What we know:
- By secondary structure, the protein is α/β, with parallel strands linked by helices.
- It has 14 helices and 17 strands.
- The protein has a six-stranded parallel β-sheet, with helices on both faces. A four-stranded mixed β-sheet has the order 3-2-1-4, with no helix packed on it. It has a four-stranded antiparallel β-sheet with strand order 5-15-16-17, with helices on one face.
- Strand 1 and strand 2 form a beta hairpin.
- Helix 13 runs parallel beside helix 14.
Amino acid sequence: MIRARRAMLPAGERPAAVVVSAGRIEAVVEVDAAVPAARTEELGTDAVLLPGLVDTHVHVNEPGRTHWEGFATATRAAAAGGVTTLLDMPLNSLPPTLDAEALAIKRAAAAGRVHVDVGFWGGVVPGNLGDGAALSGLHAAGVFGFKCFLADSGVPEFPPLDGAGLLRAAELVAALDALLIVHAEDAAVLAVAPPAGPGYPAFLASRPPAAEVSAVEAVLDAARRTGARVHVLHLSAAAALPALAAARAEGVPVTVETCPHYLTLNSAAVLPGATEFKCCPPVRDAANCDALWAGLRSGVIDAVVSDHSPSPPELKRPRGAEVGDFATAWGGVSSLQLGLPVVWTAARSRGIGLGEVSVWMSPGPARLAGLGDKGAIVAGAAADLVEFAPDEEFTVVAGDLAHRHPITPYAGRRLSGVVRRTWLGGTVTGGAPAGRLLSRGEPR
């Protein structure tokens, strides 16, 4: 039993005791209830018991590019950051997760190496559309949905879909009653944008908000025409929010996520050569950041997830370069371990409570992935829990993170909120890998 004077329950924060048995929450009772228990944990009055975070957007990169990250390091970092469940993206690993055989290879690479529960997305590329057999096979094998790109993915083995391909993918995914998740940047708009240069302003100009707006409109159109459930990944451009809000009002089945870096980083503060800030779509200006927060609070944006997309240092700062080159550096932010304190620090400065942050990072992503027993402190749910000290502060030291490579745009930042303990299935993480490999729809 875990007694907490502050526990984040679905109805809000209150004192509670959480009774755990066989990896699940058996009951949530009054904090001082007399319940027989083999062991009782008492949280300090400065800590809040949160549901474990669910991060549905993580690039683990294993097998094939394990030197970029890997299941052992990624899941250790996740647990240290209060993330108890993550879903791995289908690209950057070799082979990419484009058929059931590739999924089996990935699951074999992860087996016995994960410190949190891990599920998998399948991928959609021009080469596996066809008659839909590859997607049907992946669906039957338990992926949580299917990811596609509408612009260059950054790796040649995962090419983007054109307009006809997007519509075909939506048709196939709708027939499976699955979820289509989309990197929404319009390749045609990017093709006529100014070319990227070594500095951040030129890189930012090369990925204009119009590319996201156009792609989001295409995704919404595909959902209207096919009935497919669609999800917009890593929304950066707040200019797309009105179209998304209107689509929701008319009943289009669309969900939306954004990421900690879009909510907390500012393009004006990116220094020359600081390629640890590079991601696609890019970090934009302060007014855009404010509008994304408004989108979260209004409910147009459903979830905040990391889009953890790491790489070795030489890909962030090409060999021989005196400073990082934004035109050639790998685009991805490493933040899996830091998402909760990063978002909480920014939220509290805006007068936003921890309860809202918890909703965006636990039940929000759990719902969009169909993880019904994750993301909430309720009877019957998985006993995935976090002891979080919201007022304790720390300075980010990149080398102290559990990520494989000590690269993060948050290095040197002073943040509020420390994850003291993470429970996975009622057991504190930090020892041997004890996570499970999840399949959509299977009993857990």
